[in-house]
């Protein structure tokens, strides 16, 4: 038992590597602050364009959504990071993560927002248009607020998944939390830094899990 404790729960090693992991944590937080709004905005654009009901545009959007929902995020990230240099452009690790996550997460956010827009009854559209509002005004002031409220649990759930997904950035050596934990584990030949990283992830994301649970229960109760 003492060997297991020394290998996985070594307080001394955790204390020595905590600063290194903290540096990685700040990068993880930065990633979340960038990729989540960018992905959500991209998804919102996809959903609003789909609501225009233009046949050629819808075909292009379906292809976009299907392709980037089908591709594994890890494969997409490796592709985005490694292909541009062959075209003469050196892409940074952070740029690669942002672009790959934009492509992947916007397709999921787009489907969520689309479902929210479609959940708003035609009566809302007609009532808004009868007051003299244009299509874009109706979308922005009347439809979107209701759409977001209707799919809020799904938006929070997807945001939680995106936050967890940032850990794959470690495969291209971006110094985020998981990369820092793996580097510390390899340097100390001890798994305690990985355990510490696991605890940090839990502390950060557990409040979001509880918020999601409340929203889901509230949605069920409202039915």
UniProtKB/TrEMBL annotation:
Per the record, the GO terms for biological process are: amino acid transport
Show the GO MF annotations.
transmembrane transporter activity
- TM helices/strands, residue ranges: 25-52, 59-81, 194-213
Recorded GO cellular component terms are:
ATP-binding cassette (ABC) transporter complex
Query: Where does it localize?
Result: Cell inner membrane; Cell membrane
**Keywords, A to Z?**
Cell membrane, Membrane, Transmembrane, Transmembrane helix, Transport
Its membrane topology: Multi-pass membrane protein
Q: Where is the ABC transmembrane type-1 domain?
A: 25-213
Q: Which InterPro entries match?
A: AA_ABC_transptr_permease_3TM (IPR010065), ArtM/GltK/GlnP/TcyL/YhdX-like (IPR043429), MetI-like (IPR000515), MetI-like_sf (IPR035906)
**Protein family:** Belongs to the binding-protein-dependent transport system permease family. HisMQ subfamily.
PANTHER family assigned to the protein according to its UniProt record, in alphabetical order = BLR6398 PROTEIN, MEMBRANE COMPONENT OF AMINO ACID ABC TRANSPORTER
The family database entries (NCBIfam families) matched by this protein are listed as: HEQRo_perm_3TM
- The protein's name is Amino acid ABC transporter permease
């Amino acid at each position: 038992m003492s060997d297991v404790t020394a290998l996985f729960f070594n307080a001394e090693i955790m204390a020595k590597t905590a600063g290194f992991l903290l540096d990685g944590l700040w990068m993880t937080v930065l990633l979340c602050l960038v990729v989540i709004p960018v992905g959500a905005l991209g998804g919102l654009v996809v959903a609003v364009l789909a609501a225009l009901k233009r046949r050629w545009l819808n075909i292009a959007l379906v292809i976009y959504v299907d392709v980037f929902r089908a591709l594994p995020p890890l494969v997409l990230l490796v592709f985005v990071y490694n292909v541009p240099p062959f075209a003469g452009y050196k892409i940074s690790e952070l740029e690669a993560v942002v672009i790959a996550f934009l492509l992947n997460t916007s397709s999921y956010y787009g489907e969520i927002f689309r479902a929210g827009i479609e959940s708003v009854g035609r009566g809302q559209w007609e009532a808004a248009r009868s007051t003299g509002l244009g299509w874009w005004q109706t979308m922005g002031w009347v439809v979107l607020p209701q759409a977001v409220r209707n799919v809020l649990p799904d938006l929070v759930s997807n945001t939680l998944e995106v936050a967890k997904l940032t850990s794959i950035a470690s495969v291209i050596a971006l110094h985020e939390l998981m990369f820092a934990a793996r580097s510390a584990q390899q340097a100390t030949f001890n798994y305690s830094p990985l355990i510490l990283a696991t605890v940090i992830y839990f502390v950060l994301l557990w409040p979001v899990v509880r918020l999601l649970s409340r929203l889901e229960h509230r949605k069920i109760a409202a039915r």
